[in-house]
Amino acid sequence: MCLAVPAKIIKINGDRAQADFGGILREVNIALVDAKVGEYVLVHAGYAIQTLSQEEAEETLRLWKEILNDKD
Amino acid sequence: MIKEMRFRDAALAKRVAEKIRKIAPSKGTVKICHICGTHEWTITHYGIRSLLPESVEVIAGPGCPVCIVPASEIDEAIEMALDGVTVTCFGDLLRVPGSKMSLLDARAEGADVRVVYSVADAIKMARREREKQFVFFAVGFETTAPSTAVEILKGPPENMSFLISHRLIPPAMKALVEMEDLSLNGFIAPGHVSTIIGMKPYEIFPRDYGMPTVVAGFEPLDVLFAIYMILKQIRKGEPRLENEYVRAVLPEGNVRAQRLMRKVFKAEDGRWRGLQIIPESVLTLRDNYKRYDSRQKYDLHVKCGVDIRPGCRCHLVIVGKIKPTECPLFMKACTPHRPVGPCMVSMEGTCRIWAGST
Ligand code: SF4
User: Fold this and answer.
1) For ligand 1, atom 1: residue with the closest CA
2) Cβ A33 vs Cβ B220: under 8 Å
3) Contact assignment for B12 to A60 by CB distance below 8 Å
């Protein structure tokens, strides 16, 4: 139930947006975030709870790389 | 795009596992606790425990939002449902046992109990069927509470009320760390709850309790990296708060969601199933919104229920004191098909997750 999944915003109409969950379109409520068309959001129980950006995703990979290169 | 990135790279996982083995203590046990059903799912599904050395144990805390709803609150929902009110809830709540029956049993007795995907669906139904009274059974942690707040602030229809059962994670973590017989050495903090609350509420754990705390995402690599980060802090003797889930969790969290939650709810002391009363851990509606409170509207007076049935060890599973396999009923009298305790019902319940993998 606490699962949240990423989806891409396709169309916005006020607080409601059409979002693409890997090929399946579904309505999500975006009242909790500032999301624009084309952006990715994290959706939990029908509500976007956070926006996700490519830069932040890359940031994770950078962090991991840094950790891997750490000397123990 | 984001999905295609290398968050599940097996070779990378092997490298992190190697680093974990290298850094793990050679004697004693490090006990790391996570507080999220989805983390337990990732750990069990990808066999992460089998990658860890013997000295590193990962246990599941009270991270299943459905499992920790006290039986008395399920009983409240059932009382309304049997009285002719339409009760809407998330699917995994349906089979959670109350004191005498579940909402599914109530439905079998003719009650109108409906599964919804979100609170918005419940409100749509209430608007469509004005002649009926509707209740939304609002369970869930900080990930879910903001959506309930959004809808309450929008002004739901007259025939709609809310059975608020939202609970907060940091107070539960505090209760765990203060349990003397649990002796934890580190926390993996729940990533999605953290997208809302940010990092600040966790600061007390390293500062006041010396607990390494790492906010982590839900891919197997996220969890492995979090374990490594905790072990590293332990080895250095420098407990800190770190964010592994930078792709979703901002230090300040989702400020708008926090503001809406604060506007609608206040935190009070309250019970968690299998745990005792946890200070300031349960949300209730502020006076301005009391008119949407089902408890007030239907004058509910259920005081206490049967949280743990005879033989069930959910109270020990919920805080990670025993593994599901140590419960004598596990996969014997208690199965996903006929659950005895709440931990066997939801897809996020520890017993249910372990049942799927045995
Ligand atoms: S196996 Fe069933 S009875 Fe045993 S602790 Fe888990 S839910 Fe309770």
Assistant:
1) B330
2) no
3) no
